[in-house]
Inverse folding.
């Protein structure tokens, strides 16, 4: 999906790691939330509350998912999922544009 229709956007930015990672929250009519953001090159660790789907729109990074010892390279057009209530590590190699979807666990 290239475009979101009929949504609300939270004006206040989510700012992490001294501004090296930023995003905006998009809220859909049914209450679903996504964030659209940019990550500068660097090393980061994030925690999740809900299960997340990270879509990489531009750029590239390496991810180490919970319970894994292996790093996986993710390129523009790729995505990965992260379990709820967990932590994952990223090594962002270049300016990276992303969309994070917060998924309901059924």
């Amino acid at each position: 999906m290239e475009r979101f229709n009929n949504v609300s956007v939270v004006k206040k930015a989510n700012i992490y790691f001294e501004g090296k990672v930023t995003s905006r929250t998009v809220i859909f009519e049914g209450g679903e939330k996504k964030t659209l953001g940019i990550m500068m090159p660097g090393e980061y660790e994030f925690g999740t509350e809900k299960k997340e789907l990270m879509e990489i729109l531009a750029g590239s990074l390496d991810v180490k998912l919970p319970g894994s010892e292996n790093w996986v390279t993710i390129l523009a057009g790729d995505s990965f999922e992260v379990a709820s209530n967990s932590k994952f590590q990223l090594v962002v190699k270049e300016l990276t544009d992303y969309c994070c979807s917060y998924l309901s666990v059924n």
